[in-house]
Design a protein that fits this description.
Blueprint (H helix, E strand, L loop, with lengths): L5 H9 L3 H23 L2 H17 L10 H18 L29 H19 L3 H10 L4 H8 L3 H22 L1
Helix pairs in contact: 1-2, 2-3, 2-4, 3-4, 4-7, 5-8, 6-8, 7-8
Amino acid sequence: MNARSDDELVAGFQNGDETCFNELVYRYKNILYQYILVMVRDEGAADDIFQEVFLNFYRRIKEYHPEGKLKSYLFTSARNRILNFFRDGNKMFSLDDTDEEGNPYLHDGLAGDDPQPLEKLEQEELAARIRNASLRLPPRQREAIYLKQYMTFREAAELLGRPLGTVLVDHYRGVQKMQKLLKEEA
């Protein structure tokens, strides 16, 4: 399969091919939505912000110039909306960080064969412990750790508008603090 680049999809969308836009949304829906959710910790707000990002991109597509930086453009747009969300005081506190069925919002899919029930339970418990530890980090550290999963430190620094060294330190301190929190729980 010969997947088209972001720039090719943007150009196709700019020329009126709506399927290109749909493919871009599909391509970024998981990583961008999870980033938003990690930062706002509210599923409804994350849904709204995610939709705003792509609605804004849809409306301004003729102004966008493909230069291989769509991921940074989308993350910057999401980050600005997240900052507006907190600035405007729209943060709602949830009593529960799970969906209606009791599943955590942030979960990692496992590749390969399905684990045995006991293994699956242990993995779910570990994932919950890691998730809870990450939620206890300061937002800057949590954001640096999350962004590193999807981009280089240099890209994250550019997105955040911070020096590379600051992002490296935030990431390092976040990882150290998570390790300490996890050891304390053990």
